[in-house]
Amino acid sequence: MSIFDSLGKLVQESGFAMMLQGDGWKNLIMIVIACVLLYLGIKKQYEPLLMVGIATGCLLANVSALGGFANALYHQELWDAFLMEGGPHAHDYGYIMANGGLIDILYMGVKAGIYPCLIFIGIGAMTDFGPLISNPKSLLLGAAAQFGVFFAFFGATLLGFNGNEAASIGIIGGADGPTAILTTTKLAPHLLGPIAVAAYSYMALIPMIQPPLMKALTTEKERKVKMEQLRVVGKTEKILFPIIVTIFVVLLLPSTAPLIGCLMFGNLLKETGVTDRLSDVAQNALMNIVTLFLGISVGATMVGSNFLNVQTIYIVVLGLIAFSFSTIGGLLVGKLMYRLSGGKINPLIGSAGVSAVPMAARVSQKVGQAENPSNFLLMHAMGPNVAGVIGSAIAAGFLMSVFG
Amino acid sequence: MENIKGEMLPVGTAALDSVLGYAVVFIGLALLMLVIMLMGKIMVGNRKKSAEKTAASLADLAASTPAPTEPAIPAAERKLAPGSAGEIKLYDTDPRDAAMIMAIVADKMKKPLNELRFISIKEVK
Q1: Chains A & B: contacts with CB separation below 8 Å
Q2: Would B2 be classed as within a structural domain?
């Protein structure tokens, strides 16, 4: 082979040449989208810990896909074969291991539902359920703020999505990334990319999405309400809480076991006082490693051929609707509680019932303080906020048991 | 696509599923609320009982201890330490932590500590 033949072969096999062939333009668009996401994550700091990973996964998958099957880090074809019911490679992890690239291997943790559960252990270890235990009525706000989940689910069926897809889209309204990922992996894995991106993007945009709704749905008098100080929660209560919640919720809805079980396990590690080393690992090392793997592998599902379609636009729009209606649901029940309590509950804490912890609680604090600088709603809003985590896990459990 | 699970839902079924799902979340969390309230009541009750027991045993101890031989100095006549500006009330705060907090506040305000007056320090839980 002459030097010119070698050069010609190199040029023909390069990603730049592939860009102009077949669906190569789709990968090119996805590379641009990945760069935009990187900009949002790095410059605007929109959920950077996940956004940077997702954007990099998207970039790597699309760049390497242009290099041909052998060089790709993620192979959509393998996962299509994996999901093909009755096909020769249906649910065959060995086939993926033998033929997959680096990200295919990492993605198996998503597919098997391992990463979201491990992240829930970390979240549990980082969460203080004290405000919820001292004010259990917060749980009603956490429930109310799941309104968007079911509203978007209904909207998605009207737009022609099947039951499994609609359920996965609806759960974006739970404002809980791992829950959305686990539900989608179980019910509609082909939609994982757009749903994960929509969920995390809207979570990052909560400070922009929620305040206008909060101001529109509450009066100045309501926003100025100062709430009474919460009672002190003892250590025994904090230890009993995760045990009671696990038993009660998992018995009620067994499909919530992976999420609630892991969340409460993490919290138990934190509260026992005898497993500090494990709690530390769950909060830091484990959480960071899993976040890294989850971000990259979820981002890799955003390959051009799979992502660039009308469905993605519908999902993005429905995700926004889900988030907004969850906020509205929380606020309306917050207003009801304001009335029933004789003006003792500030309805702004209702919007924190969407589970994005602690962002949504911070927004309640900020909007409340803008009306009354001496008002501190943060701890009061943390109650509905952590209740929202349990609420979205129950909503996901319901959808998985109905459609799974 | 062949590999996609799930069936199209009639609008009526989807609406019913939505209402049922929301109701399940609400009822589940309402029941959990009742369980946690019950747990709280029991715990607060237990804490009160043990506080009463402690108070009673302290009272017994005080009754059995002989009165101090030196007369107590009335509060009004007590002298403050040089540079101090009165007493501070600490709620759920360790004196060591309180000292650190006061030093940090003085440092941030760029004022000598003996020119500041701290009324109370309370741990927000």
Answers
A1: 137
A2: no
For residues B19 and B62, membership in a common domain is answered with: yes
Site from A129, A153, A190 to mutate, B interface, most B CB atoms within 10 angstroms: A153
B48/B85 same-domain check: no
Q: Do residues B112 and B85 share a domain? A: yes
Average pLDDT over residues A11-35: 84
Coarse DSSP helix, strand, coil percentages of chain A, rounded to the nearest 5 percent: 80, 0, 20
Structure tokens at A9: 């072969």
Q: Domain for residue B24, yes or no?
A: yes
Asked whether A343 and A65 are in contact (CB, 8 A), the reply is: no
Contact A130 B125 (CB under 8 A): yes
Q: Which range of residues forms the domain containing residue B32?
A: 9-66
Q: Are B13 and B53 in the same domain?
A: yes
- Residues A124, A264 contacting (CB under 8 angstroms): yes
Take residue B124 and report the two structure tokens written for it: 């927000």
Residue range A53-90, pLDDT digits in tens: 999 999 998 988 887 777 788 888 898 899 888 889 99
Q: Is B9 on the interface with A (CB under 8 A)?
A: yes
Q: Within a domain: residue B43?
A: yes
- Joined together, the tokens standing for residue A62 give 């699309």
Phi-psi region of A338 (alpha: psi -120 to 50; beta: other; left: phi over 0): alpha
Pair (B55, B91) in one structural domain: no
User: What mean pLDDT is predicted for residues A94-118?
Assistant: 92
Set of chain B residues whose Cβ sits within 8 Å of the Cβ of A147? 22
Among the listed residues A121, A389, A50, A48, the one whose alpha carbon sits nearest the alpha carbon of residue A281:
A121
Band of the pLDDT at B1, cuts 50, 70, 90?
A: very low
Asked if the structure places residue B87 within a domain, the reply is: yes
| pLDDT, tens digit (0-9, with 9 covering 90-100), for B42-59 | 988 888 888 888 888 888
Is the domain of B43 the same as that of B91?
no
Q: What's the structural domain count of chain B?
A: 2
In angstroms, what separates the C-alpha of A288 from chain B's closest C-alpha?
27
Residue ranges in A159-256 assigned as alpha helix (H): 163-170, 177-187, 192-204, 206-217, 220-223, 235-252
Give the C-alpha separation, A124 to A128, whole Å: 8
What ranges do the domains of chain A cover?
A: 3-111, 116-403
Judge contact between A126 and A372, C-beta under 8 A.
Answer: no
